[in-house]
Amino acid sequence: METIHSDAAPAAIGPYSQAVQAGDFLFSSGQIALDAHGQLVEGGVEVQTEQVLSNLEAVLGAAGLLKTDVVKCTVFLKNMDDFAAINEVYGQFFGQHKPARSTVEVARLPKDVLVEIDVVAHRA
Fold first, then answer.
1. Are the C-beta atoms of 19 and 69 separated by less than 8 Å?
2. Residue 45 gets which letter from DSSP?
3. How far does Cα 58 stand from its chain's mean position?
4. Do 116 and 102 meet the contact criterion of CB atoms below 8 Å apart?
5. pLDDT category of residue 7 using cuts at 50, 70 and 90
6. Rounded CA gap, 40 and 35, in Å?
7. Tens digit of pLDDT for each residue in 56-82?
8. Mean pLDDT value of segment 40-54
9. Which of 53, 42, 44, 63 has its CA nearest to residue 101?
10. At 109, is the pLDDT very low, low, confident or very high (cuts 50, 70, 90)?
11. Number of Cβ within a 10 Å radius of residue 46
């Protein structure tokens, strides 16, 4: 198992890594709307989702992977009423690539953000 780190994404805010590579698979930790300096990105769920996906792309890149290598995403939402809004940003980000996905409404997320996403990617 190899720990993956990108300076272009925020450092973990707890005792965990941004991602780990195990064989041909990468498992990311959940990313929230923090910039690379650990500052919360202000804005609605669309802005936060853009930042989260940008962070994930940076972590994938640190492992030599692309967003098209993502096979599974888990989206955690503070409010399921934001489902359509995150789908719009998510769809623009992934384009024709359609990884498997679960979306779960949760009571609260770290730093009171609106969305958190983690991914599993596979090196082909």
1. no
2. H
3. 10
4. no
5. very high
6. 6
7. 999 999 999 999 999 999 999 999 999
8. 98
9. 53
10. very high
11. 15
Q: What angle do CA 90, 104, 80 make, to 5 degrees?
A: 75
Q: Does domain 2-122 have CATH number 3.30.1330.40?
A: yes
CA nearest to 109, candidates 76, 73, 75, 74: 76
- DSSP reduced 3-state for 44: coil
What is the Cα gyration radius of the chain? 13
In terms of Cα–Cα distance, which of 50, 60, 53 is closest to 27? 60
d(CA 15, CA 23) in angstroms, rounded, equals 22
CA–CA distance, 11 with 31 (Å, rounded to integer): 10
The widest CA-to-CA distance across the chain, in whole angstroms, is 38
Q: What pLDDT does 30 receive?
A: 98
- Rounded to whole angstroms, how far apart are CA atoms 80 and 71? 23
Record the tokens describing residue 119, joined without a space. 């991914």
Measured between its terminal Cα atoms, the distance across the chain in Å is 18
Query: Which DSSP category does 31 fall into?
Result: B
Locate the domains of the chain by residue range: 2-122
